[in-house]
Design a protein that fits this description.
Two copies of one chain form a homodimer. Chain A is α/β, with parallel strands linked by helices. Chain A is built from eight helices and six strands. In chain A, helix 7 links the parallel strand 5 and strand 6. In chain A, helix 1 packs across helix 2. The longest helix of chain A is centred in the first third of the chain and has 17 residues. The radius of gyration of chain A is 21 Å and the shape is globular. Chain A starts with a helix and ends in a 5-residue tail after the last helix.
Chain lengths: ~200, ~200
């Protein structure tokens, strides 16, 4: 292709976005070329504004324009129950359910020896200090049910249980609408092991 | 979700991109939040630069930083053979094959009464003037094989043939690696009708 350096540079930037390959980057760049200049400026400004305005909450490390964040400053939320998640997007997923009335703690990663992420690289120290400081009653481990998510939950449970704090883990089992025939064995086994009285 | 107005505004901008739904927009916004500020600035600047630097070539209406564009100013290209495409991205697709040694003409749309696009809304007048001015020998209709693409090609053929210029249409048939069993009937019929002696 030969649309010039500016086009090349834009596709190079777009291809860094998650889920965007070379073809999608070109499609997006063509789209940006086709929209009004004011529209493109809105997009560019929104990108800059989000970096400028959003900071990490100093208490739960969620992204927020205020500090503490709206969840931490909401007096109707139970501050003695903390839901621990890997990333802000996981917090958003839990918020969509409306099932959690407590506060959060965002780790910003999971322990992963293979990828060189040690416990001190994520917000674990801050969580432990917060638990000690605030007299927390329950810590819900809501990391994803993956090898790293399980390992991080286990690691944290070993650190937190001695502090006389209840540590729980989100349930693993069949997803709603799932089909036993097409579900992997680990999930089916988890569903069996986690069965509850009806 | 409650990450604040800047986050909301960014996802609202991202959701306007083609193929980006609400979920993808949020994923992209979270990604932009997680990258370095300098990276985000590079992305925003690349968006603005592409709008600022790229113009339409005054001869073929391709996007280009120069006028005339590199294709129109390439003296090794046959200026008497024009390949007509709907959008610059189609030009890019044809360039990738290396099979076209002539120049291009980008219509920037297709005639579509349903969507209110009339012949005067796309670069048809400019094509006809160019054909008359430059003594063109062949015009290859490389619009997509859709209802609008076919109709636009036919419309142009009726305008151009009286000028004693050869008008051709790209072949329609089975795609490479295609399977007759799973190919739609129209394509199979086109493949049969367009059969060639081996």
């Amino acid at each position: 292709m030969n649309f010039g350096g500016a086009f090349e540079r834009l596709t190079q930037q777009l291809v860094k976005l998650p889920g965007v390959g070379k073809k999608t980057a070109e499609r997006l760049a063509f789209h940006i070329l086709s929209i009004k200049e004011s529209e493109a400026r809105n997009l560019a400004q929104a990108i800059l504004a989000v970096k400028e305005k959003l900071r990490l909450c100093s208490r739960c490390f969620n992204f927020s324009e205020q500090d503490p964040c709206p969840y931490c400053s909401d007096i109707r939320r139970d501050r003695l129950v903390i839901c621990v998640v890997e990333e802000p997007r996981d917090l958003a997923a839990i918020e969509r359910t409306g099932a959690h009335k407590g506060t959060y703690h965002v780790l910003h990663g999971l322990i992963s020896p293979l990828e060189g992420v040690a416990p001190e690289d994520i917000k674990i120290k801050e969580l432990i200090e917060r638990i000690k400081r605030e007299g927390v009653e329950e810590v819900i481990m809501a990391t994803n049910p993956t090898v790293e998510g399980d390992a991080t939950a286990l690691y944290l449970a070993k650190l937190i249980t001695p502090l006389k704090v209840k540590v729980t883990r989100i349930a693993q089992g069949m997803p709603m609408g799932g089909d036993l025939e097409y579900t992997d064995e680990v999930t089916v086994r988890m569903a069996l092991e986690g069965r509850r009285v009806l």
